[in-house]
Specification:
Protein name: S-adenosyl-L-methionine-dependent methyltransferase
Organism: Schizothecium vesticola
GO molecular function: methyltransferase activity
Radius of gyration: 20 Å
Shape: globular
Strand order of the largest sheet: 3-2-1-4-5-11-10
Helix content: 25-40%
CATH topology: Rossmann fold
Number of helices: 7
Distance between the termini: 50 Å
CATH architecture: 3-Layer(aba) Sandwich
Strand content: 25-35%
Keywords: Methyltransferase, Transferase
CATH class: Alpha Beta
Number of strands: 11
CATH superfamily: Vaccinia Virus protein VP39
Order of helices and strands: HHEHEHEHEHEEEEEHEE
Structural class: alpha/beta
Number of domains: 1
Length: 282
């Protein structure tokens, strides 16, 4: 299946599950947001959001969780985009989204990016100080249109931050294993959790779920780390921060032994920050 066809299918699935996603994530986010994503975004974006007049662009906003967070953290102006109109309609209905500009933008479509870039040029606003794509890059069929547009939209001192399901331990279709054994030292029963990765460099798009009981499966697009990063390096960006985020024993879910939060040695999320190269002075 071609990229345009995959992109269209992926977007249609998010339209179909928009209300289920909104109900599951909620206005204030789930455990992944509270324990892993939000603290990481504070570390990576806090200083930038604190700058006077900060302008922020939230890509693939979903139910608007990050857009509201950016506003609450000090961004003076927030533009929140998504390719799914159904998602945007739900996002705009939440308390805390007042003052956010909600805009339809499909990150796989060059014409959508061209419209936004042209608007920025006409208004001469100096670009965005913060551009964020939280937990959505694995949901889109192609990254090249976004990578080409980011250098045209970032302010001179701006940053781009992205988070994704970790490509080694999640979108590689890794299997989860639970092994029971007795410790030779204590004689006590031990539970050893591991994952088996049989594919990593080349993994076909897969269908799966993000939340339990969702009405339709959405598409996942796996990319090894070199492909994730090199796509943006080729567009002229440089990386100045990266984190691998894992749950701890404090997050243990005793009701679901297979839960990903219980695999505390294996990171669930990969996060990174990029910017434009520093211009050399004569």
């Amino acid at each position: 299946m071609s990229h345009p066809a995959l992109a269209a299918e992926a977007l249609s699935k998010w339209d179909a599950i928009a209300s289920h996603w909104d109900a599951g994530i909620g206005r204030d986010g789930n455990k992944y947001w509270r324990v892993l994503q939000e603290p990481c975004l504070r570390r990576m974006l806090g200083a930038h959001l604190a700058k006077p007049g900060c302008r922020a662009l939230d890509l693939a906003t979903g139910n608007g969780l990050c857009a509201r967070w950016l506003k609450a953290q000090g961004a003076t102006e927030v533009v929140a985009t998504d390719g799914s109109l159904e998602m945007l309609m739900g996002a705009g209905a939440h308390e805390g989204g007042e003052g956010v500009e909600w805009r339809v933008l499909d990150v796989t479509e060059e014409r959508d990016w061209s419209t936004l870039v042209e608007k920025e040029r006409e208004e001469r606003r100096g670009g965005f100080n913060v551009i964020l794509m939280n937990m959505a890059m694995m949901d889109v069929a192609t990254l090249e249109p976004m990578a080409k547009a980011l250098p045209l939209l970032l302010a001179e001192d701006g940053v781009f931050v992205a988070t994704v399901l970790h490509p080694v331990f999640f979108t590689s279709n890794a299997s989860r294993n639970i092994e029971l054994k007795f410790s030779p030292v204590t004689g006590e029963l031990e539970v050893v959790r591991s994952k088996v990765i049989t594919e990593y460099l080349h993994v076909a798009p897969a269908r799966g779920i993000a939340l339990m009981d969702q009405p339709e499966k959405q598409l996942y697009f796996h990319r090894p780390m070199d492909q994730l990063f090199t796509t943006f390096f080729k567009a002229g960006m440089v990386m100045d921060g990266m984190e691998e985020l894992a749950f701890t024993e404090a997050d243990f879910d005793a009701k679901r032994v297979e839960s990903s939060v219980n695999y505390t040695q294996l990171p669930a999320i990969l996060a990174w920050r990029m910017r434009l190269p520093v211009k050399k002075t004569e």
